[in-house]
Amino acid sequence: MAKTALITGITGQDGYYLSRLLLERGYSVIGLLPPQRSDSIAKLGALVNEIQVCTVELTDPVGLLKIVEQLQPQEIYNLAAPSFVPDSWNDPLGTLDLVTGTATRLLAAVRQVGIDTRFYQASTSEMFGQVRSSPQDEETPFRPMNPYAAAKLHAHWTMVHHRQHYGLFACSGILYNHESSRRPPNFVTRKVSLGAAAIKLGLRETLEMGNLEAKRDWGYAGDYVEMMWRMLQTPEPEDYVIGTGQLHSVKELVTAAFDCVGLDWNQYVVVNPKFLRTDEHFQLVANPTKANRNLGWKPQVSFEALIEKMVMKDLERLQSGKIAPDTVG
Length: 329
Ligand code: F7E
Hints:
The protein is of the alpha/beta class.
């Protein structure tokens, strides 16, 4: 019989790639969506016909309990989060409730129903925050620097407590930045791929950026969802750091993107202080040795190939009129 997987945050970038992977592996995939956002399932394109949607408020413990009881899923992937970090300063409590609250309510539902559901919590390298050593691994202390990271850390510990105290099969993937052409345009990789493509086509003149010296460990989202799945197939639940182990600056990103369209970025990119951040930390880079050893982690798409793929997709979208050239965050 097909396994059932429940996914929160199914309409996001990771939700798309994970759903596709699970469907390919014969799962019955069910997305949990708040009633007022049920139309957003259309974002999944052709996958929509193969996915079932359950409408429920993620703030509703009874609703979540009923769904878990009724569907008895073999796996739950908790991906839902307002994941654009600067937004969390405007709504720290809302961020906490969605991120930590959803994890806590779902874990409680699994415990109360008493089934052998395996639970994946989407944790983040942001939890490491102000690091004192690089690269980071599963033993690195957490020093979160913003409300998003603090909420994710609370959710992470809640998951650990359910594993240790109640014996649930629950684990976290501590994922570094992972990107694709499905990233919304306010995130830096997509902002740059879309900006370079729009400038190439003569649809825009400049691209306003924040700190060009900021560095990140960027990988391809499609590679990372494979690791989410593998974590739930292991004999014992354990947490894993997932990243490429390579740091690149925003300047390198901009250079790579403009190179793809044969332009010199220096002539188009301007720094606007409104995109600078005060909670920055530029040494967040993964040591994925454990994932490499236990899960066979090996990123398939290089930084350069990822950026090229994104720029080409945005050129195509702009040329076909599928998106507006000023859709840049
Ligand atoms: O920024 C710098 C910015 O917004 C990346 C989320 O998935 O990964 C993501 O969080 C870097 C930062 O992602 C601009 O200052 C420069 O250093 O793409 P981002 P993020 O904040 O790293 C982590 C792991 C998560 O968990 C999050 O949910 O790029 N940067 N200039 C800029 N960033 C933006 N957005 N826009 C700029 O103009």
